Amino acid sequence: MGPGAVVEQVYLIRHGQTSWSLSGQHTGRTDLPLTEQGEQQARQLGALLHAISFSQVLVSPMQRARRTCELAGLGAQARIDPLLHEWDYGDYEGLTRAQIQATRPQWDVFRDGCPGGESPEQVSARADQILAQAQAMPGRVALFSHGHLLRALAVRWIELSIQAGLHFGLDAGSLSALGYEHGSALEPAIELWNQRPLRVDA
Questions:
Q1: Is 148 a catalytic residue?
Q2: Could you give the C-alpha distances from 76 to 71, 79, 150, 180, in angstroms and in order?
Q3: What is the pLDDT of residues 105-157, one digit of tens each?
Q4: How far apart are CA 114 and CA 131, in angstroms?
Q5: Which of 51, 128, 180, 190 is the most exposed place for a label (fewest CB within 10 A)?
């Protein structure tokens, strides 16, 4: 991300389960609450995060992300960043991948974007803006956001095209971390990916 970086690590936290993340429906602007399972996931994320001291905590404006942040114990420190909203799915809002592919068999959001919503180029530019903002923050930064946007952030951090986001699955209620190989800002790396707390019923 460049030699001027001062941030030590950027933690990516995907919100807990919602009814649509469970059903596989694309959830962009629809402001859904967490399910009971999603709230439990958020509390369990707190166990992973409690030992980490964050210099900044930024959260998407959507209630599913804000509630996850709150239940994880970082709500008092958080501030809303509108750039952290999910991909705008436009005409595909609320549809599953299978429903979309029924009319566009090879469709993939990272390659094709969404009619009436955001293109991959637009989301890539937004991801770069978020990362440039985080890069200028010392210490460790936590970003509470959404699946497709967090995947975009990860691939842009390691200087891949946004199309590579297809290959980075990310579960609800998961924790990932971006940092540097050998501590060098010239060598951005993914240090942790898709770590999940133990299941409630485990």
A1: no
A2: 11, 9, 22, 28
A3: 999 999 999 999 999 999 999 999 999 999 999 999 999 999 999 999 999 99
A4: 23
A5: 51
How far apart are alpha carbons 101 and 9 in whole angstroms? Answer: 37
Contact 121, 127 (CB under 8 A): no
Whether 202 maps to a domain, the answer reads: no
Domain with 17, as residue range(s), is 7-195
Q: Which of 15, 26, 85, 146 is catalytic?
A: 15
Total structural domains in the chain?
Answer: 1
pLDDT, the chain, mean: 94
Exposure class string for 122-157: b at 16+ Cβ within 10 A, else e: ebbebbbebbebbbebeebbbbbbbbbbbbbbbbbb
Q: What is the pLDDT of residue 198?
A: 66
Single out the catalytic residue among 39, 70, 86, 118.
86
pLDDT of residue 199: 53
CA atoms within 13 A on the CB side of 102: 6
pLDDT reported for residue 134: 96
Q: Rounded to whole angstroms, how far apart are CA atoms 138 and 36?
A: 35
15 is catalytic: yes
CA 5 to chain centre: 21
Length of the chain: 202
Q: Please report, for the domain that includes residue 93, its CATH number.
A: 3.40.50.1240
